[in-house]
Specification:
- This protein is α+β, with helices and mostly antiparallel strands.
- The chain is built from 16 helices and 29 strands.
- It has a 7-stranded mixed sheet with strand order 3-5-1-14-11-12-13, sandwiched between helices. Strands 18, 19, 20, 25, 26 and 29 form a 6-stranded mixed sheet that branches.
- Strand 16, helix 7 and strand 17 form a beta-alpha-beta unit.
- Helix 8 runs parallel beside helix 15, helix 11 runs parallel beside helix 12 and helix 14 packs across helix 15.
Length: 708
C-alpha cells in the first residue's frame, strides 16, 4: 500500500500477530531459549518464618552425581544494595519469612538439581513470628505515601459531624484475603555471562526496567546487561519488577561458567513473587433523605514484610468516585513476618472498590433508592479530591447503557424473594474505575527501500496483544498497511520504554510510536520528497516533555458491571448466571483484544468474589494452599453468560490515540457486583471475601430462611 493511504488500522479487530507462533509452540518463552550446555538451578526455601540460619550442611547435596554448585549465604557473591530488599538474595543468614530463598543447587539436569536440593540441610535459630493482619495491632502506622506516590490520608470537611447528622447512614467493615498472582508462565530466567556482560532471558513486564535494576544489583553499567522478554506468559503485576529468581540465576551462571536456567515452581510462586495484601476496610456513608451523599469515610489496613514497605493504595479510588462535601480516606500498615506484597491486577482500586461499592449497595437499600440511580445521583462535576475537571467521565453513560442491556428496569429491590426452582435469584451492580496513566517512552521508526517499515521500542507484550495494537498504531501513523510494519519489542537493547503495568502500556508506548512515525514521515517529505533513500531512513522520538506539558486534568476510565447470581439455600452454592460490563475507556485500539481483556478482568473479579483465598497458617507462618489444587480460581464452568461492551469515547486530552488502559478496569468492582447480587438473591451480606458456602448457610440460618 502506498504511503499516505488511510488505513484505519486502529479500531479494527486485527488478529494477534504472534498468534500462530503461540498456538504452534514456536514462540519462545524465557527458559525455552537455546543455550550452549545449559545447567539447571533449583531454589531452596526457608522452613521457618523468622530467625537465622545457624548452620549449612551442603555435603550430601554436593555429593550427588551431576551437581555443579551449591550457593548459600556462606559462599554467594556479594551484591550491591538496592531499594528492593527482596533482591538481596543469599546475602545474610537472617530469615524474614517462610519460603524465603536460602539456597540454590545447580546441576547438569533439572531432575538432579531438584533431588540434590532435598539433601541441602539448614539448621535455624528461630524467633517468635507474627503473620496475622489484625485491626487492633498496636504497631499499625501511617506510611509517608502509598503505592503510586499518593498521599496516605486525605480529609475535607467534618466527617464525624456529617455522619452523625446524616438522615441515612451505613457503616461496616469489609475484608479481602491475600490473593496470589498465578500467571501461566511461572517466573523464569535463563542467565548467561559473555565476556563480563550479562544476558538474561527473563519473564518480566519491562525489559529496560529489569535491566537497570539487575545492573545496580551486580554493580554493572546498564549497557553491560541485556534483558530479553519477547514473549511473556502473563504477569498480572507480579512481573512488574525483577523478582528474586533473577538474581541467583545470574549468580549461578557466573559461578559455574555456563548458562543457567531457573524456573520457579507453582508452589514457590505463593512465596516470594508478591501477592495482593489482605485488607481490613471500614467504610461509612451518610446521605440526606434523597440519597445524596453528605459524608464518605474509608479507612484501610494492609500488611507488608519486615524488610520492605509496600502499602496498597486501597482507598485512593474512593477519592474520585462520588460527590460529598465531607470526606476522609486513610491507610494504615502492619509490618509482619510475611513475604512482601506487591502489585496484582488493579492494585488499590480492586480491593478498595469492593468495599466502597458494597457499601453503596447497602446505602441504596437503607435509603430505598435504586442502586443504579444512587450512583447517578452522586455523580461529581469535578474531581472531588483535586477540584480539577475530568478529561472525560463516562460512568453515568456506562450505568445507563448497562442497565438497559442487562434488563435492570423493574427490578424488585427486596432481597431473597425470587426463586427459580431450587435457586434463589438476585441481581447486583457496581461501578468500575481505573486511572488513565501515561509514562515517558522512546521509539524508533525506519523506512526501508522495499516499502516496509520497522518500528522498535522496548515495550513488553505479556499476553495482552500489545504487539498487535502497536502495529496498528504505527500503520495508521505511517499511512500504510499493517502488513508493511514490523514491530520489534521485548528487548532492553531497544529504545527505552516503561513496564506493562498500571494499564498504561498502550498509551505510553503508542504515543512514542506515533511521534517516531510522524518524525519519519516528516523527514521523508522534507529531505527526500517522500521517497525512501538508498539505505533507508530512520527517525526517533521521546515523549517526556510532551507528558510534562499536559493540562492538569483528572484522567480515568470508568465502567459499570451487572451480575445475576443464583444461590442454592440447601447447599450454599453460588452460581453467576450472567455478568455484563460496559466500559468507557477512550478509543479502543483493537476490539478483539480489548474484549479479551475486559472479560479476563471480569472473570478474575468473579473468581476473587467466589473462590480465591490465601490461607495463612499462623503456626508455621506459611500459606497452606500454595498450588492450584487448593487455591481455587474460576474455571470454564464458572464463566457462563459473560458479555463486555464499551462506549465510543473521544478524549483528546489523553495521548495521540485518545486511548485509556483496559487491562485492569475489568476486575475493579466485579467482586462487589457479585456480592451485591448474592445479597439480593438470598439476603445474606458477605462482607469478608470469598463468598464461601459456609458463610451463605450461616447467614441463611441466622436469618431463619427456609431452604424450600
Amino acid at each position: 500500500m502506498a504511503r499516505g493511504t488511510r488505513t484505519a488500522a486502529v479500531g479494527s479487530p486485527l488478529t494477534r500477530i504472534e498468534g500462530r507462533l503461540k498456538v504452534t509452540g514456536a514462540a519462545q518463552y524465557a527458559v525455552e531459549h537455546e543455550a550452549d550446555r545449559p545447567a539447571y538451578a533449583w531454589i531452596v526455601q526457608a522452613t521457618v518464618a523468622r530467625g537465622a540460619i545457624r548452620k549449612v550442611d551442603a555435603a550430601a547435596a554436593l555429593a550427588q552425581p551431576g551437581v555443579l554448585a551449591v550457593l548459600t549465604h556462606d559462599n554467594a557473591p556479594r551484591l550491591q544494595p538496592v531499594d528492593d530488599a527482596e533482591l538481596a538474595v543469599l546475602q545474610t543468614p537472617a530469615v524474614h519469612y517462610h519460603g524465603q530463598v536460602v539456597g540454590l543447587v545447580v546441576a547438569e539436569s533439572l531432575e538432579t538439581a531438584r533431588e540434590a536440593a532435598a539433601h541441602l540441610r539448614f539448621t535455624y535459630d528461630t524467633d517468635d513470628h507474627d503473620v496475622v493482619l489484625r485491626a487492633d495491632d498496636r504497631a499499625l502506622y501511617a506510611p509517608e505515601t502509598v503505592n503510586g506516590g499518593f498521599p496516605t490520608d486525605s480529609a475535607r470537611g467534618d466527617v464525624t459531624a456529617a455522619l452523625a447528622g446524616a438522615a441515612v447512614r451505613v457503616e461496616h467493615t469489609y475484608a479481602t484475603p491475600a490473593l496470589h498472582n498465578n500467571a501461566m508462565e511461572p517466573h523464569a530466567t535463563l542467565a548467561e555471562w559473555q565476556d563480563g556482560d550479562l544476558l538474561l532471558y527473563d519473564s518480566n513486564q519491562g525489559a529496560p526496567t529489569a535491566r537497570d535494576v539487575v545492573a545496580r544489583v551486580f554493580g554493572l553499567e546498564p549497557e553491560r546487561v541485556r534483558v530479553v522478554n519477547r514473549h511473556v506468559g502473563g504477569g498480572f503485576g507480579s512481573k512488574g519488577t525483577p523478582r528474586p529468581q533473577i538474581v541467583p540465576a545470574a549468580m549461578a551462571a557466573k559461578d559455574v561458567g555456563r548458562p543457567v536456567k531457573l524456573a520457579i515452581t507453582r508452589q514457590q510462586m505463593f512465596a516470594f513473587i508478591g501477592y495482593r495484601t489482605p485488607t481490613i476496610q471500614r467504610v461509612a456513608l451518610g446521605a440526606d433523605p434523597d440519597g445524596r451523599l453528605v459524608a464518605i469515610a474509608h479507612d484501610a489496613i494492609s500488611q507488608s514484610s519486615r524488610i520492605r514497605e509496600f502499602t496498597e493504595q486501597t482507598t485512593v479510588a474512593t477519592r474520585i468516585m462520588y460527590a460529598a462535601p465531607h470526606r476522609r480516606t486513610t491507610h494504615r500498615l502492619a509490618r509482619l513476618d510475611v513475604p512482601t506484597p506487591s502489585w496484582m491486577r488493579a492494585p488499590g482500586e480492586c480491593p478498595g472498590m469492593f468495599a466502597l461499592e458494597s457499601a453503596m449497595d447497602e446505602l441504596a437499600l437503607a435509603a430505598g433508592i435504586d442502586p443504579v440511580q444512587l450512583r447517578i445521583l452522586n455523580e461529581p462535576e469535578l474531581d472531588p479530591e483535586r477540584g480539577v475537571p475530568f478529561s472525560s467521565r463516562g460512568l453515568v453513560a456506562c450505568l445507563r447503557e448497562g442497565a438497559e442491556r442487562f434488563g435492570w428496569d423493574g427490578r424488585d429491590p427486596a432481597p431473597g424473594v425470587r426463586r427459580d426452582g431450587r435457586w434463589l435469584v438476585g441481581t447486583g451492580v457496581a461501578a468500575s474505575t481505573y486511572p488513565a496513566y501515561r509514562s515517558p517512552a522512546q521509539a524508533a521508526a525506519r523506512a526501508d527501500g522495499d516499502g516496509t517499515f520497522t518500528v522498535r521500542i522496548g515495550a513488553s507484550d505479556i499476553g495482552t496483544g500489545a504487539r498487535t495494537a502497536l502495529t496498528q498504531i504505527a500503520a495508521d501513523a505511517l499511512g500504510v498497511s499493517t502488513d508493511d510494519v514490523l514491530l520489534q519489542l521485548g528487548d532492553s537493547a531497544l529504545p527505552k520504554a516503561g513496564v506493562a503495568g498500571g494499564s498504561m502500556g498502550t498509551a505510553s508506548w503508542g504515543s512514542a510510536v506515533v511521534r517516531a512515525c510522524e518524525a519519519l514521515r516528516g523527514r521523508l517529505d522534507a529531505e527526500h520528497g517522500g521517497t525512501v533513500p538508498d539505505g533507508g531512513l530512520e527517525a526517533t522520538a521521546e515523549t517526556a516533555d510532551e507528558i510534562k506539558a499536559q493540562k492538569d486534568l483528572s484522567r480515568h476510565a470508568f465502567g459499570a458491571q451487572f451480575v445475576e447470581a443464583r444461590v442454592d439455600p440447601e447447599t450454599g452454592e453460588v452460581r453467576v448466571a450472567r455478568m455484563l460490563g460496559v466500559f468507557a475507556a477512550g478509543r479502543i485500539i483493537n476490539p478483539r483484544t480489548a474484549r479479551s481483556q475486559f472479560l479476563g478482568g471480569m472473570t478474575m473479579g468473579m473468581s476473587m468474589a467466589l473462590h480465591e483465598e490465601g490461607l495463612m497458617d499462623p503456626r508455621f507462618g506459611d500459606f497452606v494452599n500454595h498450588d492450584l489444587a487448593q487455591y481455587h480460581v474460576a474455571a470454564h464452568a464458572d464463566v457462563t453468560g459473560m458479555e463486555a461492551f464499551w462506549l465510543d469515547e473521544d478524549d483528546h486530552d489523553l495521548n495521540p490515540m485518545g486511548s485509556k488502559g483496559i487491562g485492569e478496569i475489568g476486575i475493579v468492582g466485579a467482586a462487589a457486583a457479585v456480592a451485591n447480587a448474592v445479597h439480593h438473591a438470598c439476603g445474606v451480606r458477605v462482607r469478608e471475601l470469598p463468598i464461601r458456602l459456609d458463610k451463605i448457610l450461616d447467614g441463611l440460618g441466622a436469618a431463619g430462611v427456609s431452604a424450600r
